[in-house]
Amino acid sequence: MSEVKMPGPARRKKAQVATKEALAAQMKRWTRDEMVCRTYQHRWDAYTVEPEGKNLLSTLFCARCESYKYELIDGSSGHVLKRSRDYPPGYLTVGLGRIQGPRRDELRLETAKRFLKGPSKRHLNAVEDAG
Ligand SMILES: [Zn+2]
């Protein structure tokens, strides 16, 4: 089977788990949108689909954090053969580790607290553009 070139970084190695202290420090640096995508998952929307031999390379885009997700899908069955992602500069936090267990709760709580402060600047801009 020939190797299909996929955009985006190579798969990450076995992830370590984030510590409470490391997550707390990182949450101070993340923007509200970065917090929302990490808490509630990305808002994927169809972006492009290109033929890739007998298969299709589907690109999805999250307008909130500007990440891309690529799926190479079987042109006959639709089964996903490969997945990869491409994050904007600074999105990935090297060395933080996987956010799971109590860390997910801490992230959810911090995102909720920020949400209480009002909509993101990006959302406000979109509302102004629509008006
Ligand atoms: Zn996102």
Describe, in plain words, how this protein is organized in 3D.
By secondary structure, the protein is of the alpha+beta class. It has one domain. It is built from 4 helices and 4 strands; from the N terminus they run H-H-E-E-E-E-H-H. The protein has a 4-stranded antiparallel β-sheet, with no helix packed on it. Strand 3 and strand 4 form a beta hairpin. Helix 1 runs parallel beside helix 3 and helix 2 packs across helix 3. It is elongated and about 45 Å long. The structure holds zinc ion. The site of zinc ion (ZN) has 6 residues, from loops.
Q: What's the short version?
A:
This protein is of the alpha+beta class and 131 residues long. Helix content is 32%, strand content 24%. Helix 2 (32-40) crosses helix 3.
